[in-house]
Amino acid sequence: MPIISVSNLTKVYASGFTALKNINLDIERGEIFALLGPNGAGKTTLIGAICGLVMPSSGTVTVGGYDNIENYREARSLIGLVPQELHTDAWESPFATASFSRGLFGKPKNSALIEKILKDLSLWDKRKSQIITLSGGMKRRVMIAKALAHEPQILFLDEPTAGVDVELRKAMWDVVRELRDAGVTIILTTHYIEEAEEMADRVGVINKGEIVLIEDKKKLMQKLGKKQLSLHLQQKLAAVPSSLATYGLELSQDGHELVYTYDTKGERTGITTLMNDLRQAGIAFNDLNTKQSSLEEIFVSLVHA
Fold first, then answer.
1. Helix residue spans in 29-185 (DSSP H)
2. Residue-level pLDDT at 174
3. What is the pLDDT of residues 8-57, one digit of tens each?
4. What is the DSSP string of 47-58?
5. What is the pLDDT of residue 197?
């Protein structure tokens, strides 16, 4: 049974703007699910609706088997939410903030757990500092500590590494992996698509309030990923000969490189016949290399399709 199940979810605001259109989405227990989409696509609204912070116009959401409206407290207690905006008491300390958040969910005091969370997030040295004195990256990590304090089964990370430097970002992802290994389900939205490519088990793409695609990340890369063969020519070429027109070759502006794009899932790549035809056309090359489409390129092609 999925830990989160979204069924026919629609959100229309009073202004008439439709933020979400008939969303259907199941998230499996213990997976890392990356939700990708351009600004204004509906990512934050969808997270808000699942967490019970946004009232849907129609449709249902269950979290751990609980309806998130009828059984709001039970559903919400399973969720840790790290929003995009930094909401913390500027004058409190990280330790006090995390401890208070744990208490809000009715959990008994557990200083050892708060200590572990702060250490994992490299915040222990700053445990007594006022949050207002911390850097943006540290404030972001305080938000994560706050979300983890009540030991949720599900963690939502809405643009978690925005404003965080590369080193801290890597440390943060180590924590995310540890949480996943401990059985926590992670849902993240990110603009850093390379993070989704590295971290996610499955990827969902949302655009204009609609789910465009949900796919296992590896299958997505195989299904939509195209490979490009780049040939570095020995001599400059003014134009692609008409005898090679069927290959759809692209010639670089300087005339020294030919690029052939082919489908990785096709029975035949066409490379062998291309090589023969290049030889017959008298085109020689010094070097060649191949490149697989990145998840970012796939994402852009989906959104602009």
1. 43-50, 72-77, 94-104, 111-120, 136-148, 166-181
2. 83
3. 999 999 999 999 999 999 999 999 999 988 888 899 999 999 999 999 99
4. HHHHTTSS--SE
5. 79
Going by C-alpha positions, the residue among 145, 110, 113 that lies closest to residue 131 is 145
Can you tell me the distance from the alpha carbon of 165 to that of 138, in angstroms, rounded to the nearest whole number? 10
Judgement on whether residues 213 and 198 belong to the same structural domain of the protein: yes
Tally: H helices and E strands in the chain:
10, 14
Boundaries of domain holding 298: 226-303
H-run or E-run covering 261: strand 257-263
Do 213 and 264 sit in the same domain of this protein?
A: no
DSSP 64: T
pTM: 0.76
The one-letter code for the residue type at 70 is E
Cβ atoms of residues 128 and 114 within 8 Å? no
Cα→Cα distances 138→53, 99, 128, 135, 164, Å: 25, 17, 13, 5, 8
Query: What proportions of the chain, in percent to the nearest 5, are helix, strand and coil?
Result: 35, 30, 35
pLDDT digits (tens, 9 = 90+) for 140-184: 889 999 999 999 999 999 887 766 677 777 777 888 888 899 899
- Per-residue pLDDT of 97-141, as tens digits, reads 999 999 999 999 999 999 999 998 889 999 999 999 998 888 888
Number of domain units in the chain: 2
**Residue given tokens 């609204």 in the structure block:** 45
For residue 179, what are its two tokens?
């949480």
What is the number of other CB atoms lying within 10 angstroms of the CB of residue 229?
19
**Helix, strand, or coil (residue 108):** coil
Q: Are residues 213 and 238 in the same domain?
A: no
Q: What is the largest CA-CA distance in the chain?
A: 78
